[in-house]
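Appendix B. One record, verbatim.
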Amino acid sequence: MRCGAFDYEDSAQARKEWYSSPSEVPAVEGQCGVEPSTTKTPLRQEIGKTYMQWKWFVYIIECADGSYYTEMTWRLDKRWEQHISGFGSKYTGRKKVVRLVYAEEYESFQEAKNRELQIKKWSRIKKEKLIKGEWSKW
C-alpha cells in the first residue's frame, strides 16, 4: 500500500523497531490517515528527531567465557532482556551473557555513540579498570 512518498508497510515496520508498543509510535505527516502539512518530513528525519530526545546508555556485559560486550541502547532494560533470551546480538547469543557490569547514561545520541566507540577500542585491562571505578569516565 502506498501513501504519499512512503511505502506504508516499510515505514510502519521501521518505526515499530524503535518503539515497544504501537501506542508509542507517533503519526508521521503524509502517512495514511494523517493529514500532510505544507512541508513533508521524510520518515527518517521524523524518527531522527524522536530518538535524539531519548536518554542513551552505553553498557558493558560480561559473557560466560569472560569476554566483554560493549554496546549502546535507549532502553537498557529491554535490551538486557533481549541479551538474556539470546536475541540481543549474534555475539551474546553465542557467548551467553552472565551479568551487566557497567552502564553510563547520556542525553545525546552522538555522545553515547562516541563513548561506545571509544570503549570498544580499549584493551581488556582498561575496560576492567573502568568497571572497577579505577578509570575516569573520560
